[in-house]
Amino acid sequence: MISRRNWRATLEPVCIPVAALLVSLVLFGLFCALAGANPLAVYAAIYKAAFGSWFSFQNTLIRAAPLMLSSLCTALPALLGLVIIGNEGALVIGALASIIVGLPLVPVASPLVVLMAMALAGIVGGGLWIMAVGALRYYRAVNETISSLLMNYIAIALLNHLVGGPIRDPSSLNKPSSFPLPDAFLLGDIPGTRVHYGLIYGLIACAIAYFLMRHTTFGFAVRTVGGNIRAARIAGLPVGKLTLIICFLAGSCAGLAGMVEVAAVHGRVSASLNANYGYSSILVAFIARQNPLAAVLVSILLGGILASGGILQRSLQLPDATVLVFQGLVFLVVLYSESLYGRLAIFKPQPNKEKSDGNGSPRLVGSAAGNHGGNAAG
Amino acid sequence: MAGTLRGSAPFLFVSLGECLTEKSGKINLGLEGTLLTGAMSAYAISYLTGSPWLGVLVAGLAGMALGTIHAWLAQQPKVNDVAVGIAMIIFGSGVAFFLGKPFIQPSAPQLPVFELGAWSSIPAVQSALKISPLFLLGLAIAPVMQWFFQATRWGLFIRAVGDSPDAARAMGISIVRVRTICIILGSFLAGIGGASLSLYYPGSWSEGISSGQGLMAVALVIFARWNPIQCMYAALLFGGAQAIGPALQSVGVQSYYYLFNASPYILTLAIMIITCSPKRTLTGVPGALGTNR
């Protein structure tokens, strides 16, 4: 709720990320200028390639869909206090699971059944993959960040192994890949656009995640564990069970992203599947401050930046790694901005002057509590 | 064997750098980016000036530059050092790929090697025993670092900061300064590790050159229990594990090539699962590691 008293505190989580994005834009402009390109031309090219026309905006949305889904893979465990970066691995495993389940079903089932089975396989595959990370964390105290990172590499090796051997289509000569899904079995486009239904999946998943985390007792339990694990244990919350469930949900979102990539974009599984959506989506989760609804907006923004890589290369002769530099800068500045919360005087709730005159202290306590409540609601 | 000795040089440097960093209580996942930047700048400088040793130096300096960013950022309040590491991977590799684009084609002067295999007439043995002075340097640094931690005043400071920041503060040590120095020096070593990639083995610059070695070094340090000497053995082991895949391919085993390539990761994960336990903390782990203090 925005009221006159706490509007400054309400604005804080909006202004700081936006300011961080602007600062990183400026830094990126400096970098481009040093590299001999006109920063304004670069901004214009990125904007045009990302949001300039309906055509390019659809490209952006196509890239935003897997980002939304897999950003939840970092955002959900973060509420528990876990830093999981296994998005790429879960995406790859979800894709593999969906194609392994989907291909044998093609001759015997209708497209809708096949797609549902594929989505389910992707969800279960990715979910179990990250749940393993959570289990290792809870039962063996293995650092979840490092284990999920290692499992990314294992997943990619598994992908290369499977498409190079057991599930390889012999006709794919120079670029090994699996047998393709027939066109009729691909995930369709939203009517009137070139954007596939994966975008809807992403929006729904983010909305569900938001509701689950903010408005249910389950979400409250999760946030309690993330806030203070000892207090949560004393309160009798099943920390282990919550860890496993959250990790499964997180992985299943990324797994679904993998299924969407297979069923809507590539039509088959190959090494081009690991297109760094996993790592970009970690960035999304951090910019969005683990808020699933903010993740939708940030995904669209970052999808646009990703979509502009090719244009930068063609029109301004900048290497495609330019986008990587930009992403890195944004990430660094956003992380720095984390340390600014509560430190900038302008966002501090202002004590109400005419009331706090005279006997200040009881009034101040009351107004601080009121502001705090306003924060949580807003 | 050939691959083991040559492939372990970058591991050695990166893991020693990571070991130094983690002893002070911070983790630097960004060494992957540092490694790539080091490899790129060493190759570029060696190509432009014709002096590979200058390349090594610049690689170290480039590493220090990235390390400075990490050190500053990771010590801000409420900033997670793991997340900063991931950001540094993206940023470091972005910078390396961006600036390194023109240097993929040309070939740069390589570092000189000691031909320890000259006594043998078998070419395989000769190429296996081409030992880089850089590798020997790494082997020398490991015991020196061990001695440094054990027996010097500064080593004690670093261990105190890493194990118990409160005690260090009571001793009057500036925690921020010690950690900053450790992270920067660690990144210097990682940059040199990058130089050994591009100027020694495999001896060229390409975007896939590091293949995750900077990240594996983090796991390697855990495996080595934060002990520089054990880092040395672990680096040899990891270098060997990485050589298994290509070696099998050369003797005709084709089918499990990619899975063998993943063997270092599987090995690390297995070791972590075996050595970690919720009931006791690892022996040798710096007390403040992974906490936000």
Describe this structure in words.
The complex is a heterodimer of chains A (378) and B (293). Chain A has 378 residues and is mainly alpha-helical. Chain A is 73% helix and 0% strand. Chain A contains 16 helices and no strands. In chain A, helix 5 runs antiparallel to helix 6, helix 5 (111-140) runs antiparallel to helix 10 and helix 11 packs across helix 12 (292-307). The longest helix of chain A has 30 residues, at 111-140. Chain B is an all-alpha fold and 293 residues long. Chain B has a two-stranded antiparallel ribbon with strand order 1-2. At the A-B interface, helix 5, helix 6, helix 11 and helix 14 of A face helix 4, helix 10, helix 12 and helix 13 of B.
For this entry, give a set of tags.
heterodimer; A: 378 residues; mainly alpha; 16 helices; globular; disordered C terminus; B: 293 residues; two-stranded antiparallel sheet; 1% strand
Helix content estimate of chain A: over 70%
Spatial separation of the terminal alpha carbons of chain A: 5 Å
Q: Bin the helical content of chain B.
A: 55-70%
Number of strands of chain A: 0
Mean pLDDT of chain A: 83
Largest interface between protein chains, with number of residues from each side: A-B, 47 and 47 residues
Instruction: Supply Rg of chain B.
Output: 19 Å
- Shape designation of chain A: globular
How many individual helices of chain A? Answer: 16
